[in-house]
């Protein structure tokens, strides 16, 4: 919202030559011009301009504010009434089992790269996002009702409670940093998001993985390669990821062509076995 507010202020100053306008002045023309401004905005610092979905996110935030204004009866007409948000569906990048094994099996010369690798792998095996791992405390590691170690936390993004049983690989990473945790009080040594993503690009290059790997790829990997591909029901995966809607988790299920292929092959094998069983069964003769 802060980022959208900055865009709005700059738009008002540069295009409308003012610092503020009345809510009643918001109309379809304003929204279209604001959309065009974000799409063509040239930042002073070297960074990418907004993608289509990035632009739509800014407009969605503005829409939420105008909806609030309508509920509060500060506005009589909805300025977004004739405007449709147009998101482009993107395939979500995730690591295959082979790529995950490549990263796990590679050791790096610097402490920084090894730490980023471990935190990234911890996310791959828990499904926790960068900020959720960064804010994780030792008192959130508990013994569950099944006697195993669980993480009890809340998603920073949605405040949704999440309870995750720890897989063996995730436990190994926690054990590796146990002594350091006792000294610092922090469960894991998490670097800044910028430094983490920069190091991840080096890790991907060293492992000859030709994908744009960001930290969020780890969460997608947990959803696809670790859980759904291994037959974990989508309802369980949704709960582990802390999704409020099952439809959000279904996005991951769509990309699993390998799983679809395997399931259909199993079905073909089943039909083949039944056919063979029928042909081998003794035939009864009727006079």
What does the secondary structure layout of this molecule look like, with pairings?
Blueprint: H1 2-15, H2 28-40, H3 52-71, H4 97-104, H5 111-126, H6 130-134, E1 141-143, E2 149-154, E3 161-165, H7 168-176, H8 178-184, H9 193-206, H10 216-227, H11 234-241, H12 246-254, H13 257-280
Antiparallel strand pairs: 1-2, 2-3
Helix pairs in contact: 2-3, 5-7, 5-9, 5-10, 11-12
Task: Flag low-confidence runs.
Answer: none
Q: Output the number of helix runs.
A: 13
What's the gyration radius in Å?
Answer: 25 Å
Number of strands: 3
Structural class: mainly alpha
How would you name the CATH homologous superfamily of the largest domain?
A: Intergrase catalytic core
| Overall 3D form | globular
Profile the largest sheet: 3 strands, antiparallel
């Amino acid at each position: 919202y802060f980022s959208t507010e900055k865009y709005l202020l700059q738009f008002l100053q540069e295009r409308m030559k003012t610092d503020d306008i009345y809510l009643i002045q918001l109309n379809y023309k304003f929204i279209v011009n604001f959309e065009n401004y974000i799409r063509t905005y040239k930042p002073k610092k070297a960074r990418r301009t907004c993608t289509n979905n990035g632009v739509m996110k800014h407009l969605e935030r503005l829409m939420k504010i105008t909806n609030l204004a309508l509920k509060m009866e500060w506005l009589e007409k909805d300025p977004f009434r004739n405007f449709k948000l147009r998101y482009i569906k993107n395939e979500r990048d995730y690591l295959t089992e082979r790529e995950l094994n490549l990263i796990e099996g590679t050791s790096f010369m610097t402490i920084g790269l090894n730490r980023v690798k471990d935190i990234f792998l911890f996310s791959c095996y828990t499904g926790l996002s960068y900020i959720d791992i960064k804010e994780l405390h030792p008192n959130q590691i508990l013994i569950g009702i099944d006697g195993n170690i669980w993480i009890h936390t809340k998603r920073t993004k949605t405040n949704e409670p999440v309870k995750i049983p720890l897989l063996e690989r995730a436990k190994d990473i926690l054990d590796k940093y146990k002594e350091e945790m006792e000294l610092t009080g922090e469960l894991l040594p998490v670097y800044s998001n910028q430094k983490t993503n920069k190091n991840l690009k080096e890790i991907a290059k060293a492992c000859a993985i030709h994908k744009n790997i960001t930290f969020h790829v780890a969460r997608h990997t947990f959803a696809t390669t670790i859980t759904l591909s291994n037959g974990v029901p989508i309802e369980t995966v949704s709960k582990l990821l802390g999704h409020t809607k099952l439809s959000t988790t279904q996005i991951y299920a769509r990309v699993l062509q390998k799983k679809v292929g395997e399931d259909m092959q199993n079905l073909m094998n089943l039909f083949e076995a039944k056919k063979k069983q029928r042909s081998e069964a003794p035939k009864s003769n009727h006079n």
